[in-house]
């Protein structure tokens, strides 16, 4: 067995002939500033090539059914092992996917209940909410039902003629609304709140055979009367939401109320499954306990037949607990998990598997983790390694870097300034090296002594959502507040309550940017209209030619530059368009140049290079905003879908700068940032605050914590054991606090 994975002359994205030997069966951490090329090595080269070579081992018949990967740009790639990428992409969005189904622990629980629950509901599917045998018939196993929000749709104080129906498509005066004002059965001038039960029944459901006459453009029509509730249900609830326009969907959503299913009270299962208990608990009760509590409950099972199954469930649950997710419950929908939680949960699945000789690849697994929890994450990575796997991690966190057997530091800068290996060796050697990462590792965290004075205060009062325990806390205005606490302590919940209470807040999060596959940094920051006008003016043509959404676009790929192939159960595959070779435009358009550059050349410039090219003030202002948020290394034409969560958050921030008197809310803005970039982020936050804004961030990075004007520390632990404010005050005040993990780590970092 070769002991190394070798890459020779790798040139993907910004890589400059990178040649590397990565030790097998070891933990290798890739460091370097954002945009230096870490992902280009690990994801775009190693992971892609290993998948491609694996696919080639299948027969022609199977291969034709697999995604086609293009060979990454490199001279040679040898001795790869099959790669498993464990990333932060959100885990399955649909509501049938829960922590229990995703980890497969739910199926073990079903077997346990079918063998041992009394009375038994039958075989194991009778306990599955995703199987007709077990699901609640009322909500089809979703646990929730949506129903029209009649309090919102009908104003009881008004008559039908005076606008009692508030849902615009059915309002008085519209052709659909006439049905209700024109029927002989109802008094159009009587307030709806005074209707008799029979009248209300008629309004909502009508009566078979009743007719009504309405006037429409083409004349007068007599039609079947359809009750308000029946019509709403038929037109908006029984139809596929995705078939409606976004505008209709948003409108309908305003008039819907979602609630626990009345039949199963949210438990998702039918009556037979819910009648079956072990030690007094139903399977739904068990799924609702937090994992750390469920472990104790299952350990109490002493029946000799059930014990081995219970023990299998406990072993899997303990893996969830071991990576610091013991505060989750099995019934938690995966769509509500954060990216970091999802990534750690995916890892649990792999820990349980018996595969060895694989290459596991992680993307910044410390995201969302308090320094306290990073230790447990480290154990997890080492356990994967010790099972005989090669573990590759892209990471900025010094505690994870310290665990590495081998470090590859990329740089020296970002984009065209990066793409080289600037250091290889052990973490200790790295800390002694002259690279940027080395220098940052030697630096201490410095506490801010002079904190700003608040100009006022915004309050969250009596918050009790999720695990919060009647939390009342002040967010002072005109300062930088950092919310800290271990994973699951309630930070996101508290900040969500804060933004709900102060709806003017500008929330800058890491969620996907919901725009078309053609969006790029240039379109997103709003500079393309001007760029197209400049090209049209200088070449005597039409601005439309320079848009990859219109006439100038390559016909082969419709201006995307790539061909997207959707695969039912896998990630879609992208391949470069053969017609334009990824340049997105027709040849005629590419021949039109300004200052020697075609529109495609401009889109290949980084924001920094574009600053040297454009004089237009509006364009420059937008490019400078990208620089302010540390994204100068992005090319103007890079698809937004290739941006990481942290980059998405920063590009959103770039379009929302230059306000005063606003409240900014950011969730872990250091995600994806190298230690040296954190200073730039702090400078940006300072500028925002000094311009008269209020900034609230959720953050684990101790440099950011030390830089706060005010800290709100939640804890002491996650889930049931969290949800309290355990410290409020300045960084210096936190240093002296007892019983706070954040304080403990801050003391260590500043010592
Ligand atoms: P890191 O992981 O160190 O942040 P990346 O490997 O993601 O860096 O990026 C290295 C360079 O390659 C950056 O300049 C980035 O903008 C560019 N790049 C990354 N992905 C793509 C892509 N899909 N298309 C074009 N350029 C890309
Ligand atoms: P943090 O942001 O500090 O990691 P969260 O606010 O995400 O913590 O979580 C606090 C508690 O609330 C945890 O027990 C978590 O499981 C629970 N929780 C968070 N979001 C949801 C949700 N959408 N549904 C149910 N429980 C949730
Ligand atoms: Zn139900
Ligand atoms: Zn094309």
From TrEMBL:
GO terms for molecular function: ATP binding; ATP hydrolysis activity; DNA binding; nuclease activity. SMART domains: AAA (SM00382). Pfam families: ABC_tran. Keywords: ATP-binding, Cytoplasm, DNA damage, DNA excision, DNA repair, DNA-binding, Excision nuclease, Nucleotide-binding, Repeat. Its main location: cytoplasm. Residues 445-747 form the ABC transporter domain. It is found in: Cytoplasm. PROSITE patterns: ABC_TRANSPORTER_2. One of its GO terms (biological process) is DNA repair. The keyword Secreted does not apply. The keyword Nucleotide-binding applies. InterPro entries: AAA+_ATPase (IPR003593), ABC_transporter-like_ATP-bd (IPR003439), P-loop_NTPase (IPR027417). One of its GO terms (cellular component) is cytoplasm. Belongs to the ABC transporter superfamily. UvrA family. This is UvrABC system protein A. It comes from Streptomyces resistomycificus.
């Amino acid at each position: 067995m070769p002991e190394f994975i070798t890459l020779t002359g790798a040139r993907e994205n910004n890589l400059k002939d990178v040649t590397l030997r990565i030790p097998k069966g070891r933990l290798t951490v890739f460091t370097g500033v954002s945009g230096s090329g870490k992902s280009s090595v690990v994801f775009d080269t190693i992971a892609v090539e290993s998948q491609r070579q694996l696919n080639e081992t299948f027969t022609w018949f199977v291969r034709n059914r697999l995604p086609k990967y293009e060979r990454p740009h490199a001279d040679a790639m040898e001795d790869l092992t099959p790669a498993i990428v464990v990333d932060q992409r959100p885990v399955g969005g649909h509501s049938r996917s829960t922590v229990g189904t995703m980890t497969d622990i739910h199926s073990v629980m079903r077997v346990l209940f079918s063998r041992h629950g009394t009375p038994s509901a039958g075989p194991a599917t009778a306990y599955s909410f995703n199987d007709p045998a077990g699901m609640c018939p009322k909500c089809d196993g979703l646990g929730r039902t949506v129903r029209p929000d009649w309090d919102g749709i009908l104003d009881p104080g008004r008559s039908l003629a005076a606008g009692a129906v508030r849902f615009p498509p059915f309002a008085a005066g519209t052709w659909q609304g006439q049905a209700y004002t024109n029927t002989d059965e109802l008094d159009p001038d009587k307030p709806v709140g005074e209707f008799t039960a029979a009248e209300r029944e008629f309004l909502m459901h009508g009566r078979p055979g009743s007719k009504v006459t309405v006037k429409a453009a083409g004349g007068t029509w007599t039609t079947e009367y359809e009750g308000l509730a029946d019509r709403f249900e038929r037109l908006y609830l029984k139809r596929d939401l995705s078939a409606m326009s976004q505008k209709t969907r948003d409108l309908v959503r305003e008039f819907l109320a979602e609630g626990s299913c009345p039949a199963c009270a949210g438990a998702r299962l039918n009556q037979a499954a819910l009648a079956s208990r072990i030690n007094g608990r139903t399977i739904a009760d068990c799924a609702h306990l937090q994992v750390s509590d469920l472990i104790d409950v299952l350990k109490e099972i002493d029946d000799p037949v059930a014990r081995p199954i219970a023990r299998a469930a406990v072993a899997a649950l303990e893996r969830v607990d071991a990576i610091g997710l013991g505060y989750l419950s099995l019934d938690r929908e995966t769509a509500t998990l954060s990216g970091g939680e999802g990534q750690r949960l995916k890892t649990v699945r792999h820990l349980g598997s018996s595969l060895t000789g694989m290459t596991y690849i992680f993307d910044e697994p410390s995201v969302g983790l308090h320094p306290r929890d990073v230790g447990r994450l480290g154990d997890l990575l080492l356990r994967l390694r010790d099972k005989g796997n090669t573990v590759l991690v892209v990471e900025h966190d010094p505690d994870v870097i310290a665990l590495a057997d081998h470090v590859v530091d990329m740089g020296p800068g970002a984009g065209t300034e990066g793409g080289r290996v600037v250091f290889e060796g052990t973490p200790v050697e790295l800390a002694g090296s002259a690279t940027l990462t080395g220098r940052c590792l030697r630096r201490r965290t410095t506490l801010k002594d002079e904190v700003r004075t608040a100009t006022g205060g915004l309050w969250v009062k009596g918050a009790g959502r999720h695990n919060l325990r009647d939390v009342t806390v002040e967010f002072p205005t005109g300062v930088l507040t950092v919310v800290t606490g271990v994973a699951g302590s309630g930070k996101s919940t508290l900040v969500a309550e804060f933004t709900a209470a102060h709806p003017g807040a500008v929330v800058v999060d890491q969620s996907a940017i919901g725009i078309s596959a053609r969006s790029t940094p240039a379109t997103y920051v709003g500079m393309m209209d001007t760029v197209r006008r400049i090209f049209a003016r200088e070449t005597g043509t039409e601005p439309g030619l320079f848009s990859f959404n219109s006439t100038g676009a390559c016909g082969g790929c419709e201006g995307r530059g790539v061909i997207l192939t959707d695969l039912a159960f896998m990630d879609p595959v992208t391949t470069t368009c053969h017609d334009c070779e990824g340049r997105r435009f027709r040849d005629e358009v590419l021949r039109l140049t300004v200052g020697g550059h075609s529109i495609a050349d401009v889109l290949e410039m980084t924001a920094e290079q574009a600053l040297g090219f454009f004089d237009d003030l509006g364009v420059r202002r937008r490019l400078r905003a990208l620089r302010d948020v540390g994204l100068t290394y992005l090319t103007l034409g890079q698809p937004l879908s290739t941006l990481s969560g942290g980059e998405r958050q920063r590009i959103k921030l770039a379009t929302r700068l230059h306000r005063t008197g606003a409240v900014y809310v950011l969730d872990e803005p250091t995600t994806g940032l190298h230690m040296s970039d954190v200073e730039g982020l702090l400078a940006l936050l300072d500028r925002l605050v000094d311009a008269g804004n209020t900034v609230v961030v959720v953050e684990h990075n101790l440099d950011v914590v030390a830089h706060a004007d005010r800290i709100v520390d939640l804890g002491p632990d996650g889930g049931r054991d969290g949800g309290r404010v355990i410290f409020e005050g300045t960084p210096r005040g936190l240093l002296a606090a007892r019983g706070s993990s954040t304080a403990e780590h801050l003391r260590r970092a500043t010592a």
